[in-house]
């Protein structure tokens, strides 16, 4: 036998490809802390956290309107199966997270479809799962889109409702637009 035949089979890792877009990304530099176009390994027992707090989140979004931890991704294997999956959980008390057309409130979680668009505020993230076999780690691969992802995919933008469920356009006599506050500020 040759050394090639005796070599161990290389195990591939599942990879979560994420393409980010924000309408002010050129002006506000909210993505400057993200490592684009390079695959990064994340241990399978760690949660991938996205948010503005660099002490907690590995994926830091530099924007005061983003929660300390906006959302998290957990890698797992389904019970009695070899299928590897991702679960996404909304960690923001103030902002709803949309996975395609499913709305997630605070601490709600859902299995990530193999291809979906995740939205919160003005952020749009196209997420695509590439299968792999490794149980020890997964990889992330981040890219930046120059055009709105929803526009590119011809998916209508979901208009978020204010937390009080009053749609401002239905009550024009009030003349007030909603004000966004940071989760640290009290009402």
From TrEMBL:
GO terms, biological process: innate immune response; positive regulation of canonical NF-kappaB signal transduction
GO cellular component: cytoplasm
Highest taxon of source: Eukaryota
InterPro entries hit by this protein: FHA_dom, SMAD_FHA_dom_sf, TIFA
Alphabetically ordered keywords of this record: Cytoplasm, Immunity, Innate immunity
Pfam families: FHA
Assigned protein family: Belongs to the TIFA family.
Name this protein carries in UniProt: TRAF-interacting protein with FHA domain-containing protein A
Organism lineage: Eukaryota, Metazoa, Chordata, Craniata, Vertebrata
């Amino acid at each position: 036998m040759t050394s090639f035949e005796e070599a161990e089979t290389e195990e591939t890792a599942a990879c979560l490809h994420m393409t980010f877009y924000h309408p002010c990304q050129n002006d506000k530099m909210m993505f400057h802390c993200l490592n684009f176009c390079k695959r990064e390994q994340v241990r399978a027992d760690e949660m991938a956290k996205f948010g503005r707090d660099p002490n907690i989140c590995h994926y830091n979004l530099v924007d005061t309107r983003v929660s300390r931890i906006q959302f998290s991704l957990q890698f797992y294997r389904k019970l009695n199966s070899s299928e590897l999956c991702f679960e996404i959980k909304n960690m923001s008390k103030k902002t709803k997270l949309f996975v395609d057309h499913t709305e997630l409130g605070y601490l709600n979680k859902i299995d990530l479809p193999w291809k979906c668009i995740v939205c919160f505020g003005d952020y749009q993230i196209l997420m695509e799962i590439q299968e792999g076999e490794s149980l020890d780690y997964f990889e992330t691969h981040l890219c930046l889109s120059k055009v709105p992802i929803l526009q590119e995919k011809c998916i209508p933008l979901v208009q978020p409702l204010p937390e009080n469920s009053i749609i401002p356009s239905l009550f024009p006599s009030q003349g007030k637009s909603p004000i966004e506050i940071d989760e640290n500020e009290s009402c």
